[in-house]
Amino acid sequence: MTMRTDSSEPCTLNTTAKNSGEKIAILDCGAQYTKVIDRRVREMNVETEIFPLNVQPDRLRDGFSGIIISGGPNSVYEKNAPKCHPDLFKLNLPVFGICYGMQLLNLALGGTVQSGTTKEYGETVIQVQPDSSLFKGLEQNQQVLMSHGDRIDALAPGFSVVAESAGGGQQERIVAAMANPEAKIYGVQFHPEVELTEHGTDMLKNFLYEVCQVSGLFQLKDRIEMAIEDIQQTVGDKDVFVLVSGGVDSSVTAALLVRALGPERVYAVHIDSGFMRHQESDGVCEALQAIGLKNLRRIDAADYFFNGMAEVNGKTIGPLSTLTDPEQKRRIIGDVFYQMIQKAMAEADFDLDNAFIAQGTLRPDLIESGNRSVSETAHKIKTHHNDVPIIQEHREKGLIIEPNKDWHKDEVREVGRQLGLSEELVSRQPFPGPGLAIRILCVDKPYITNKFEATQKALKEKASAKGYDSLLLPVKSVGVQGDGRSYSYLAILAPQQPERLQNWDELKNLARDIPNHLHTVNRVAVILDGQPLPEQCQTITPTTLQSETVDKLRRVDHQVTSAFRAAGIHDDISQLLTVLVPVDMSGEKGHSVAIRAVVTSDYMTARPASLGKEIPLAFIQHLANILSDEPGMDRVMYDITSKPPATVEWE
Ligand code: XMP
Asked: Are 391 and 240 in contact (CB under 8 A)?
């Protein structure tokens, strides 16, 4: 199916409710999970709008069917703890308070909260009253992710306890949920929005459909229409520039622009940064023409990128080809992308300071960049190339169009399907904007801290107890531990007997246990090439983004991707990538290669594809042997770490 691109007739998808008129207001108390609540509610076909907790109640008077108050990191008694407007509860709207939200509403309505000294956070079993509307259809015992520092003491008048924590004997029981069914006000001490609360979505659904009595008119197709209208309203009669990488995110953005404005008003640029995969830019341009882009320009900009510089805190960094720091690399790549767009815009006679630029930014990109539009509290995990300061400035002027910014990857794919994009394009594996540049670990010296020896010793003990040799490599890679970013060692394992490689469960457990116990390790890989490990490896191969090095990774990446395709397993994996690791245990100045294959739906968490099950062992070992025979190639390993504690990419 191809997309209709008739410019005279912008799309109006057949929809029952553009604005469903039954929105849920989510009041944000600063929780990392606010966006997850938002996403869950939208998945249940109910429109949402996020407000700060102290929103003026008048703003919620019309069009809202209920209020959810999120959790938050504060104690209600803290001086700066967020507060709601005293009249919020006089709106007579149903309210659902989560964690902090429950304590806040209890306090505001005349109850008391007991201050705690320790914060408890973990999975626990609670006992609920199935006759409460909130728990309708559920069993009495429920596994939930409990989170509390403070706890409910005296309930506000009119409320009763509808769930209690089952742990710790009578004295330890805490109020896990409270309700005033007449006022339609409910509170829970746990997080119904996360997967660790087994039936959390049922509870949210009960609040929406039983208590607020919404009818679920908000469909993905409405959100597509809203995105299209939003584009039309924002840009008025101006043209839009769009940066298209060829991935599903930017392709969907481009397709929405073509739908909203017609193909004549959309100027697309594909930039070959020199960090693309084998012959990728050729394929990308063909696919983009097929979605109706007429004004499509390809810029071969490898030289600009390799020689790119940037200003960071008044200091000039670069050129890119000499740098080793991942954040600096990302920063320059982001800036050069922007410079390339500006150059292309100037050449097409666009007014740089006032022109609209569209990009395919997703919700998780903004969360991980610590963008304030997503959360006031989220930590910066990494700079995404589409959220560098230069883009942020343009965004502040209201000139960045990001129609996918409320969507996650799986939703964007669904939007693409609904817009009629080809399945091949829609199901494409993601490829990061900075491309192969962030898949080459760049180093100028070994990473050896005072924890190296002790960590290696502990690693060896752990691994040998299970029949594996092991080694701590003097390089670091990025991970996410807690809600923050970690930069830690890479541990590698080699089976003492070849058959150990068949025991995936054991490998998976080791990959979880090692970073759990050794906090300076966040990534574990297993050697596939069958050769033994040396006792020590404390040297690296100095590596930066030289074009030969990028070519080397491009060749390996092509070999790996082609082999996975030929074996028919490529499409069962969410993302397949190869990383050049600057370590050569043979004492030469070569590199090792890591294969990473993950399975995930939202890329916020991911698990490695299993060896021996999803990836046949004979296949991957054969591939490893071919790769290690390549000149300048030392060891071949497979990354067996989940996200968290590792990330999908290594930098
Ligand atoms: P991580 O490594 O954070 O990756 O687990 C999650 C997803 O995001 C992609 N990724 C990026 N995409 N620009 C992008 O467009 C970036 O800078 C970037 N870094 C990571 C990654 O490939 C995975 O799909």
From this structure: no
Q: How far is the CA of 432 from the centre of ligand 1 (A)?
A: 5
Q: What domains lie within the chain, and their CATH numbers? A: 23-211 (3.40.50.880), 223-431 (3.40.50.620), 452-639 (3.30.300.10)
The residue whose C-alpha atom lies closest to atom 24 belonging to ligand 1 is: 430
Q: How confident is the model at residue 9 (pLDDT cuts 50, 70, 90)?
A: very low
Q: Is 99 a catalytic residue?
A: yes
Q: Bridge partners of 595?
A: 578, 638
632 pLDDT band, cuts 50/70/90, is very high
pLDDT band of residue 549 (cuts 50, 70, 90) is very high
Using N-to-C axis directions, what is the helix angle for 504-517 and 452-464, rounded to 10°? 150
Rounded Cα distance between 540 and 645, Å, is 24
Write out the two tokens for 532.
């033994």
Q: Atom 3 of ligand 1 has which residue's CA nearest to it?
A: 647
Residue in 22, 47, 193, 649 annotated catalytic: 193
Vertex 160 angle, CA 155 and 161, to 5°: 90
pTM (predicted TM-score)? 0.73
Q: Let me know: does 608 contact 639? Beta carbons within 8 Å.
A: yes
Q: What token pair was written down for 410?
A: 């799986």
Ligand 1 first shell, C-beta below 6 A: 330, 368, 384-385, 430, 432-434, 575, 603, 643, 647-649
φ, ψ (nearest 5 deg) of residue 433: -50, -50
Please state, in angstroms and rounded to a whole number, the distance separating the CA atoms of residues 525 and 596: 9
Q: Which long-range contacts (CB under 8 A, 24 or more apart) does 304-311 make?
A: 304/336, 304/339, 304/340, 305/273, 305/274, 305/275, 305/332, 305/333, 305/336, 305/437, 306/274, 306/545, 306/547, 308/332, 308/333, 308/335, 308/336, 308/339, 310/335
Residue nearest to atom 11 of ligand 1 (CA): 432
Q: By CB neighbour count within 10 A (0-12 exposed, 13-18 middle, 19+ buried), where does 79 fall?
A: exposed
DSSP string, 42-59: HHTT--EEEEETT--GGG
pLDDT digits (tens, 9 = 90+) for 391-415: 788 888 989 999 998 787 888 999 9
How far apart CA 297 and CA 348 sit, in angstroms, is 10
pLDDT attached to residue 385: 61
Q: Provide the terminal-to-terminal Cα distance of the chain, rounded to the nearest Å.
A: 37
For residue 568, give every residue at least 6 positions away whose Cβ sits within 8 Å of its Cβ, in sequence order, or none: none
- pLDDT tens digits, residue range 265-287? 999 999 999 999 999 998 889 88
Beta bridge partners of 582: none
Cβ–Cβ under 8 Å, residues 123 and 144: yes
3-class DSSP string for 244-278 = CCCCHHHHHHHHHHHHHHCHHHEEEEEEECCCCCC
Distance 648 CA to ligand 1 centre (A): 7
Residue 543 clears pLDDT 80, i.e. is over it: yes
- Determine contact, residues 530/500, Cβ cutoff 8 Å: no
3-state secondary structure labels for all residues of 479-538: EEECCEEEEEEEEEEEECCHHHHHCHHHHHHHHHHHHHHCCCEEEEEEECCCCCCCCCCC
- In sequence order, which residues have a C-beta less than 8 Å from that of residue 55 and are 6 or more positions away? 25, 27, 84, 85, 88
What's the CA gap between 305 and 178, in Å, rounded?
A: 57
What residues contact 554, with CB distance under 8 A and at least 6 apart? 277, 278, 436
